[in-house]
Amino acid sequence: MWSYFANPHKFLRLSDWLAPTFYAVGALCIAWGLWQGLWVVPKDEYQGGDIMRVMFIHVPAAWLAMASYSALAVASFIWFVWRHELADIAAKSIAPLGAVWTAICLATGAIWGKPTWGTWWQWNDARMMSVLFLLFLFLGYVALRASMDTRQKAARAGAILAMVGAINVPLIKFSVDMVESIHQGASVITADGPKMAAVYLTPLLISGLGHSLFFGGLVMTSMRTEIRERRIARLRAASLEGA
Amino acid sequence: MSGAPLLAAFRQSLGEAWAGGAGALLPLGFLGGTAVLVPLGIGTDAATLKAVGPGIIWVALALASLVTLERIFQADTEDGTLDLWLQAGAPVSALAAAKTLAHWLSAGLPLALFSPVLALMFQAQASPALLVNAGLYALGSLAFFFWGGVGAALSATVRRGGLLISMIALPLYVPTAVFGALAMSGGPGSTGAPLFLAASTLCACAVAPYAMSAALRLAAD
Amino acid sequence: MAAFARAAEPAIPDPMNSQAPSLLSPLLSGAGLGMIRGERVLFRRVSLSVRPGEALLLRGSNGAGKTTLLRILAGLTRAETGEVTRAAPHHWVGHREGLKPMETPRAHLKLWAEAWGARTGTDPVLTRMGLTRPADVAGRDLSAGQRRRTALARLLLEDRPVWLLDEPYTALDADGRALIDALIAEHRAKGGAVIAALHGEAGFPGSTDVTL
Lengths: 243, 221, 212
Description:
Number of strands of chain B: 0
Mean pLDDT of chain A: 84
Number of strands of chain A: 0
Radius of gyration of chain B: 18 Å
Shape of chain A: globular
Strand content of chain B: under 5%
Largest sheet of chain A: none
Number of helices of chain A: 6
Order of helices and strands of chain B: HHHHHHHHH
Strand content of chain A: under 5%
Oligomer: heterotrimer
Largest sheet of chain B: none
Distance between the termini of chain B: 24 Å
Number of domains of chain A: 1
């Protein structure tokens, strides 16, 4: 059943309707979340006053940064083992988008942090450091792929790096967590259930869903473009052969 | 399967690292540069130097590894030596580990062993702790060389791969840097940190050779 | 795209000619090999094999894929399709000599003898290859021909049935070329096989051409 998803033709047909759906639902969720966040929910003085409303972008972006790196690692592993070209195309598409969302997370975090904690950046904060290094992992991946001569070499090099990075991500998180943190502790996923008030939690979760769907739509569009680019390249090469 | 190719690779790498007398210059250069430039740049306040000293030495170790590694695999791809090593009859991961170890011995370990001298110049108290720190630096730099080796192997075919190696290696250096700094901070985290440092170095030595092997076979392809 | 053309083949097996194709099993063979570089198809469905005493010559214009095919046979490059069966160890002498800038011919041969666990002394090999005078000159100070001789000298360090040579005559003077011809002839007489990529040079006696 899984090999169904390895077929580029089937993927193109699937994403013909799935991508627009993701965009639409995602945009709606983001819009609703933003509306709730910017105008409806009460401000939390403890978290910095009005500026904490940026959390409705910052937190989903953080979730996506980490989820997209996992997706990158999984896609790379699938390609490495089964050599489904679609997995490589997925990995190639996820990376730059993941980098953008990670950057959004860092930027919104800084915007939130300055008025709240008095600083744009804090070096001994575990979460900030983890996300920063995640950004480097993404950028390194994109740079490495771009520097390879051929498509096949780029795929192989990328897969090696993504898997090495995936092994290191838990190690990095663990090490940075040992350093004292000024971030708040986990409040959404904890052993006792969400600690956040529902009035914040619901828009946050909806925003998270929205960002994920929108991200998924963008990845699909990027993959569609890549599939077509590779087809064009093959056709061009074949016509040069005269075959 | 004999260890002859591994020993030969190890010896060749050692010889290369010391070839033309350049081998001794790199660690000394970094030591000298760090010792002179940092106080000039940061200021000569004893308390500041004492605080930043350990971290500066970690940085010097990281940079030393990046600079050495940039050349080792790239040179082998360019002059055809890699082709010969891939056919030498030993597992490529073991060969990669042997070469990386050789380069660590010539550029990483000496720096770590000289660290007490550097620490004294950074106004540290003379005590046996400096020798312990030297051991920690040695452990940490081993991890730097192995993870950096992965970056170097992946960038072996890239012109001016230095920046790429740094981008790839930097996140991989983080656990070592964090545990190392923690171990030397003397604060609440420092008792367990050396063990974590050792563990993350072991992880590097176990995982990196396989990644290097895949990357080197890709470079020769 | 791949033509398998037979060159000079003796019509009647000559018992006095030790280079007649033997009926022993192939030392190295490739079946259905195809290769893509980027989007370009280099070659497809190439099949070849060498038996003891045989010589196979890869011919084709620049960029046709001779080097790539040799690298596939050596195991350095992975073919897109097809597979290679190696029944015997091989020697590889590629385009690039594998000589370090500070490495002398003597040191080079010592290193590889050590790596391969071969007991051959380096001095006789250096003498045979005409490298006695430059034996202790650093690689970067050697002439191109001397570097090529150093690389080819590896062939004498250890007895391996198959020789894979990429444009072995490059940079060699007339003496050098005669030397290579002699080495190859001796090797084939002992039952070894040679696969070489050549660029317009004349082939070896009783060899077969594969044109890419």
